[in-house]
Amino acid sequence: MAKSTDAQKRASVKWRDENRERARYTNARSAARGFIRNRAKINDLYELREMIDTKILALNGENNEQDNE
Predict the structure, then answer these.
(1) Measured between alpha carbons, how far is 31 from 29 in angstroms, rounded to an integer?
(2) How far apart are CA 36 and CA 48, in angstroms?
(3) Cα 46 to chain center, whole Å?
(4) Please, what is the average pLDDT of the chain?
(5) How far apart are CA 17 and CA 15, in angstroms?
(6) Average pLDDT in the 22-41 region?
(7) Which residue among 5, 15, 51, 58 is the one 20 to 30 A from 65 at the CA level?
(8) Could you give the C-alpha distances from 51 to 6, 11, 32, 40, 56, in angstroms and in order?
(9) CB within 8 A of 15, min separation 6: which ones?
(10) Who contacts 40 (Cβ-Cβ below 8 Å, separation ≥6)?
(11) With the C-alpha atoms ordered 47, 32, 28, 65, is the resulting torsion angle positive or negative?
(12) Which pLDDT value is given to residue 2?
């Protein structure tokens, strides 16, 4: 992998500082995907599926409430 220049490093730090929430979201999403691909056992996947289904229902409920306003 090519080394980053000092300018690129400064730009990356600046972007992370200005976009902390987006960087945190992206990092968490990447970690979740990596866990599922590389480490999760079958029981983990069933538990995650249940959590995802619950979250989808909750988000759909929020969307329906907004539609009614």
Answers:
(1) 5
(2) 9
(3) 19
(4) 93
(5) 5
(6) 97
(7) 51
(8) 42, 37, 13, 15, 9
(9) 23
(10) 48
(11) negative
(12) 77
Percentage of the residues of the chain whose pLDDT score is greater than 90 = 83
Model pTM score? 0.71
Residue 39 tokens read as: 């480490």
d(C-alpha 52, C-alpha 3), whole Å: 38
- Checking if the pLDDT of 26 tops 90, the result is yes
pLDDT band at 69 (very low <50, low <70, confident <90, very high): low
Please tell me what DSSP assigns to residue 1.
Answer: -
Angstrom CA distances, 31 to 18, 39, 40, 53, stand at: 21, 11, 12, 20
Q: Give 62 or 14, the one with higher predicted confidence.
A: 14
Measured distance CA(10)–CA(14) in Å, rounded:
6
